[in-house]
Amino acid sequence: MQNGNARTTDTEVAVIVVNYGTAALTIAAVESVLARDHGGRGVEIHVVDNASPGDDAEVLARAHEDRGWVGRVTLWPETENHGFGRGNNLILHHLSERDKPPVYAFLLNPDAALENEAIDILAAALEANLDAAAAGAGISFPDGSPAVACFRFPTLIRELVTTINFGPLEKLLPSGRTSLPPDWTGPIDWVAGASVLMRLDHLSEVGFFDPDFFLYYEEVELMWRLRRAGYRALYVPQARVTHIAGAATQVASHDKRAKPSPAFVYESWRMYYVKSHGRLYALTLAFLKFPAAWISKILSRMRGDPSILPARFSRDHWRHVVRPLLLGTPDG
Mean pLDDT, to the nearest integer, of 118-145? Predict the structure, then answer.
């Protein structure tokens, strides 16, 4: 159900924020968009509440009335938690069905906020690169430290290099790195979904987000399909966004403490490799992850550093990745 009527005429950019249990941060994210003029581009905002626990829907509804959002922001209070991709798909499908759809969709995490005219900067980058379907912003943590926001596509070699986490090995195989430094200026394969501007017609062409993914790897898989369709992604660090990583999922990418990862992280990893490389490739890599993880743990102990692996990795990797692949479940 929609609440309020966002402007639909002369809209160039539709901003989508998918909220789950972070109403205060979502309000800040929306306000950061409303505070900018976006180079004069027509912008509308859609906020999906993914059946948040507590009173998030009511808090957002009050903000809609009290902060003057009527006519500029549309609320979508859902009764089911769709996850990230499916939550965005609700709006993407709605936008694409209009007689005059927006040119761009800007995906903004609820725990992110614009630091500058990021939307205008990203749109200008896409206008200057007609073969690009997506442009991602540079991201910083609240303390100002830069976050990794651009990447190469995961592969068997890159996955093992990342898991082993050994500096000399990374230097020996520089192309084996999946994540790229915040000041990277070379070509990239995909950008973080926390703040990315995408051409709506290209998204429609490839079918939007794959609904099989609940959370994690959905933007990687989407940008893999865009690349396969002949489009590339851009990293535009001049566009700046602050991001409190993991506020909604409790899976913080910069948190080095060993915690168990949710099952959906493993399930999404498995589905990505099956969909992009096939079941045999995924199964081979899944088995190779075990010795790579053991090597990583040994090296971490020798260095006196905490392991980069989540707690219970071997058990959960077997349960949510290897076993489904061996059994041949529908998505494994």
Answer: 97
